[in-house]
Amino acid sequence: MGLIEVAQNFTAIVCGSDVLIYNNRNSKNQKLDPVSDNENHENSKVKILNQDSIDEKHKNSKTQINDPFRKYESFNVSENQKAKEGNSNGGSSNKTNLYSIVSVKASRDGQYLAIAFEEKSAVVWCTKTWTRLCIHRLVKRPMAIAITSDSSTLLVADKSGDVYSFPLKGSQPKDKQDRLSEQEKNEGKGEENQEENNEGEREKYQEKNNGEREKDREENNGEREKDQEENNKRGREKDQEENNKGGREKDQEENNKGEKEKEVTPVTPKPILGHLSMLLDMAITEDDKYIITCDRDEKIRVSHYPNSYNIVSFCLGHKEFVTQVELLPQNNNLLLSCSGDGTLILWDYLQGECLAELDTREYTPCDLLHMYEEDRKQNEKSESFKKFLPDFPGVKHFAVRSINATQHIVAVVLDRVPAILLFQIDVPNMTPIVVKELEDQPGEVAWLQSGELIHVHEFSRDIITVSELQNNDLKPVAEHPLVSLGRRCAGLFNGVYDGPDFDVLYKQQYDNVADYMKKKQKRLAVEKAAQDGIIVPFKKGRWS
């Protein structure tokens, strides 16, 4: 699903229809200062990305800025709530109608960030300048996204079971980031060249005009020299002002029009592969040779890329829908998957072989299942429609941290269970470490590059919690900058999307045999009563 993305230089955290971007550079033991209007926003460590951010200067205009992101320091929760109320009463941009973000994914080099929205769109951002490169319109609602290792292709898995590929940087032959980097390089070179050219031209001009000036001084009066100098100065100043005003305005208008047209230019998606069921997650190997997809029908498919019609293997072993697949970071030959049946399975995915299986119900205390049991009781009391719910909750999400090629630590989150389960993988064995009980269910977990575990809670005091594994126990890090960030941005985390609803993904079971037996017993009782003369026999039909 990917609601927390940890890259080399930043950490992206999904909160509703926004994405919090935190700069990881020099973030260790650094505290975030209170909001200050006098603070330099360009040096901000936190940004907020969304799809329909509009500059305050252009609220009343129809033009949308090319760089729609907001600095965190300029964001105020109370002002945002007022804006939501005003927009809902007939404003031009309705913030409340923004769709939730389904997934975020960063490229391996950390230069690009892709965001998949629930409203059938995917947005690609450049992380160096935080400019929006392009918007891809999708046919169906996205479920998972992936980026190839060369940062050239965006893969989108949708609700109907299909995977499409898009050029990551849009339909442009060269992306905006390359042009921006070239402009930055050329700016320095241009300044140096201008200085050299100006010096050379001045020297040549002085040498050529030395003789002429001597003759002119002899022939012409001092008044002509003064007139020429004054006229030249005035003419140059006027020409420069006119050229600067007219030229810059025209260039800006042409560039803005061209960029907008290129952003809106549609890209025809290329179909890669298809399933007969809803896709829930997707992964691609580091060498871009294989693409791995999982669906609602308990299947994990391994296909060649980009010729995905060549299927390598199927990994079959889960009894319910497969919610997540992930390659082990330092051992891409192994695949870890989780399912709605509450199991984790370690695969040799090229052979389709199960190396190890772990059932989380064996290590989860019964007193942590109270939230899940309450939903089961309400479901049984429902007379209109009863959903099928298994006896034990499924695995919602996991995060892997690699110690080396054979040792890995896995943090597991179960559906409606207020706890985090830690397991250690010593290939090919999986053993439990600790079960950490929490105040409420965590929405998403991820490992930071420094080794801490970050998890998001919507109804807790600390929205963002950072924990550290010490002596086989998770201990919270109170002074981490991400913790203070969560407290300051608590207003953004209302209605956080935490993945698909598990109750809908479970296949419904219908007991048609019981209804048939009831009707049969009723028919036999009527026939026996007719034979005994208790009731008058009736005709069954014209052919009876």
From TrEMBL:
Composition-biased stretches (Basic and acidic residues): 172-192, 199-264
Q: Which UniProt keywords apply?
A: Nucleus, Repeat, tRNA processing, WD repeat
Could you tell me where this protein is found in the cell? Answer: Nucleus
An annotated GO cellular component of this protein is:
tRNA methyltransferase complex
- Extract the ranges annotated as region (Disordered): 164-269
Q: Does the keyword Phosphoprotein apply?
A: no
Give me the WD repeat coordinates as residue ranges. Answer: 315-357
Q: Which InterPro entries match?
A: Trm82, WD40/YVTN_repeat-like_dom_sf, WD40_repeat_dom_sf, WD40_rpt
- Gene Ontology process terms (BP): RNA (guanine-N7)-methylation; tRNA modification
> Coiled-coil stretches, from where to where?
none
Which SUPFAM superfamilies did the record assign? WD40 repeat-like (SSF50978)
| Database matches in HAMAP family | TRM82
Assembly and oligomerization: Forms a heterodimer with the catalytic subunit Mettl1. Interacts with mei-P26 and weakly interacts with bgcn; required for the function or formation of the mei-P26-bgcn-bam-sxl complex. Interacts with nanos; may be involved in mei-P26-dependent derepression of the BMP signaling pathway. Interacts with Myc; the interaction may be mediated by mei-P26 and may be involved in the regulation of ribosome biogenesis.
What function is annotated for this protein? Required for the Mettl1-dependent formation of N(7)-methylguanine at position 46 (m7G46) in tRNA. In the Mettl1-wuho methyltransferase complex, it is required to stabilize and induce conformational changes of the catalytic subunit. Required for binding of nanos mRNA and repression of translation by the mei-P26-bgcn-bam-sxl complex. May cooperate with mei-P26 and nanos to derepress the BMP signaling pathway. May cooperate with mei-P26 to suppress expression of a subset of microRNAs. May cooperate with mei-P26 to regulate bam expression levels in germline cells during gametogenesis.
What is this protein's record name? tRNA (guanine-N(7)-)-methyltransferase non-catalytic subunit
Q: Which organism is it from?
A: Cherax quadricarinatus (Australian red claw crayfish)
